[in-house]
Fold this sequence. Notes:
The protein is an alpha/beta fold. It is built from eight helices and 26 strands.
Amino acid sequence: xALPPLMPLDEARDKLLASLPRLCQTESLPTDQCAGxxxxxxxxxxxxxxxxxxxxxxxxxxxxxxxxNGELAVSQRxxxxxxxxxxxxxTAARIFTGAEMPPxxxxxxxxxxxxxxxxxxxxxxxxxKKGEWVRPAGMDLEQGETILRAGSRITPxxxxxxxxxxxxxxxxYQPLKVALITTGDELVEPGQPLGPGKIYNSNIQMIGTxxxxxxxxxxxxxxxxxxxxxxxxxLKEAVSKADxxxxxxxxxxxxxxxxxxxxxSLGTLNLWRIRLKPGKxxxxxxxxxxxxxxxxxxxxxxxxxxxxxxxxCLMHLQGAKYKAVTHLxxxxxxxxxxxxxxxxxxxxxIDGVAQMLVSQNSGVxxxxxxxxxxxxxxxxxxxxxxxxYSFMPxxxxxxx
Length: 400
C-alpha cells in the first residue's frame, strides 16, 4: 500500500485545530485558585482602577493656578486609604503616595520641590507641570473594558488584575482528562531491573509531567506490549476513562508497530506522517468521538511532536485559543545541505548565534538539557551559516 504524502507541519496543525471541538465543562473557582487554568468567559472591568484620581508621590495636592500665589497654607492631611475633603481655595493638602486627590486639586507638588517655612506655609522650590504626579481614575483599567479574554491562560498577573477589580471568582474550564499510553516490549519502568534489550520508560514521565504542567489531568495507563490485541484493549480502556488519548510509540510502519492498525480497527485515522524531522510518524485519529494523538517512540521525537502538534491540539480541546509559539530570528552557526523535511534541530544560543548540539539523534534525550530551544531549518533549501532562521525557545514551546 502506498504511503500518504508528508504533510507540512503548519498545514497539519491548522487542519487539526479547525476540526477539533471544545470538550471541557466550565466551573467557577475562587480567583486565587485560578492560576494556570483556561478562562471560560471574558472578564470586563466593573469599575475604574484606580476608582478615583490619586497621588503617585508624597507631597502636596494643589490647584495648579494657586502655585503662582506664593506661599500656601496646608489645610488638610490625606494618608492613603482616607477620604479627602474638598480643597480649600488657595491652600495645599499634605498627601501621601496612593492617597485620593481632594476635589479641587489637579497637581502634586512633590515634597522634594517644596519648602516648608518656619510658619508652616508651603513655598515652591521647583514648579511642577500641571497635572504632574496625578494618576487619573481608570489609568490602569477603565470601567466596561474587556480585560481578559475567554480562552486565555490565567497567569499570576491575571489573578492580581482580577483581584484589583474586586472579583472573588472566575469562570474557568475544568481540566481536560488525558490518558497517556506508552507501548513497547523494550520498556521497563524506572526502579525495575534493567534486563537485556531493555530501556527505561522515560517518555511516560516526561510527557506526563508536561501534561500536568499544562493544566491537564493525567490519566495514567499501564505500559502496553507490542501486541495488536493488547493495543486495542488499551485504547478501549483509555477512551472510556479520558477526554483525549495520547499514545507514544508503535505508530510507524514496522512489523511490531500496532498502534495505527489498532486505531483504524476502532475508529478513524484523520492524519498521519508529517514533513517533520524528528517526528514524521505523528498521527491524529478519533475513536468514539475521543481525539487520539499518537507520538513517535524516540524521546526527542516525542518531545518535538508533543510541543509542536499534540500540545496545541490538547489546549484547543481544553478551551484555549491557539497561541503561536514565539519565533525569533537567530543566525545559524552552521551550514546544511538541502533536505526533504523541515528539521527542528536542538540548538544552544551562544553569543547570539544558534549552535547545533553535537548529536541530533532522536534517541538522545539528554541534548534537551543543554539546548535553549529548536531552530527551524526549512525543507528544500540549503542552510547557510550566518543566515537568520526561526528559533523557538523551549519556554514558549512547553510553557505558553
